[in-house]
Amino acid sequence: MHSKEIFVDSLITFQSRRRMDPLQIWVRNMDRKKEIRAKFLKMRQALPKEEVREKSLRIMRRIEETETFKNADNLLAYIDFRGEVATGTLIEKAWELGKKVYVPRVAGKEMEFYRIHSFEDLEKGAYGILEPKKECPVYKAGEGQTTLAILPGSVFDEKKNRVGYGGGFYDRYFEKRKDICRIAAAYEMQIVEEIETEEFDLPADYVTTEERFW
Asked: Residues marked as binding?
């Protein structure tokens, strides 16, 4: 695999990953975090559609094979956008198994998950992202029920830390619901060795890529 250097600034340099060697990167402050986010999003959006499809299928199959998914009563999943790991097959599998599926809708600075019974329950919302219709029922934890959440993001590290998209929606939502198991779905190219986190950053419980699950 050919490697090339990508420079964020004179202090932050990283190389495209070889198969299992993580990118070397340190996010020192919020300004640099924005730069790192922009660089990785650009890399992700440049992925060919067929590569996105193939890698997404492998990632979703890894999640399907976990006991966490098999035992979950509810699935909180994002609707993929602009090259994100595609979640459609996992959502369909959840419906097939009789699980309740909830997807996010943003209102102002808050995000809630709403139940959908099919993709027909979606409409175009903020930033052109598909969201559940307003009449869909909001997620509420049921007594004795287990819930699994699938997290998107721009960059993740080996310690399962996450850099999102800058809005803090997922951090705020799951800060109040730490009992929900969180699996981050990412391409291997989005994994770095270490991210310097802020106090409000919430890590994933697990991370899965097309190559591994940890």
From this structure: 33-37, 79, 84, 162-170
